[in-house]
Amino acid sequence: DIQMTQSPSTLSASVGDRVIITCRASQSISGWLAWYQQKPGQAPNLLIYRASNLESGVPSRFSGSGSGTEFTLTISSLQPDDFATYYCQQYNSDWLTFGGGTKVEMK
Amino acid sequence: QVQLQESGPGLVKPSETLSLTCAVSGVSISSYYWSWIRQPPGKRMEWIGYIYYTENTNYNPSLKSRVTISVDTSKNHFSLRLSSVTAADTAVYYCARSRSTVFDSWGQGTLVTVSS
Fold this sequence. Notes:
The structure holds 2 protein chains of 2 kinds.
Chain A: E1 4-7, E2 10-13, E3 19-25, E4 33-38, E5 45-49, E6 53-54, E7 62-67, E8 70-75, E9 85-90, E10 97-98, E11 102-106
Parallel strand pairs in A: 2-11
Antiparallel strand pairs in A: 1-3, 3-8, 4-5, 4-9, 5-6, 7-8, 9-10, 9-11
Chain B: E1 3-7, E2 11-12, E3 18-25, E4 33-39, E5 46-52, E6 57-59, E7 67-72, E8 77-82, E9 91-99, E10 102-106, E11 110-114
Parallel strand pairs in B: 2-11
Antiparallel strand pairs in B: 1-3, 3-8, 4-5, 4-9, 5-6, 7-8, 9-10, 9-11
């Protein structure tokens, strides 16, 4: 299976900050990467697919980039609603796998 | 708007079979792929498998020997069976719609605890 490693595992930030989360794959996944946001007690919500494509309805302050083995999710200006846990997911192989998550908490 | 709702027992005994159903509304199940994903407490999400309405399936190799996913187009729902469960199978189980193996709609999730 392809291992997905996210960093940091926890990030402390303030409203208005630029936030960058990294996801690394154990082998090349081309651009087959998605990002999700999950709030406590809720199901995950798709933010980005194909590494950089914004899902319909997702605010434009979210953006994704990368290819191969290294990817980033950027929140350009953190809003109160953005405090949550973020997960990456690869879909390059038939065995779909997720990263361990990055919790964005209030500084 | 597509909606998914999981249902099934919240408590399963060790060595028994976990059975869950996902009711789909707002879209025909005869489109897209449909997945099960789980999240053990404090751990990362784990994809279990997916099915197409033609009954074509793909399972997580680490669970394949114990997993069966089925679909009922007449009821617009799909189901999960996981046999020989242990405490390690305790998790929140989600059903989700798969669009090119990206999960774009999710159920609210249901906690299944394996305990005697």
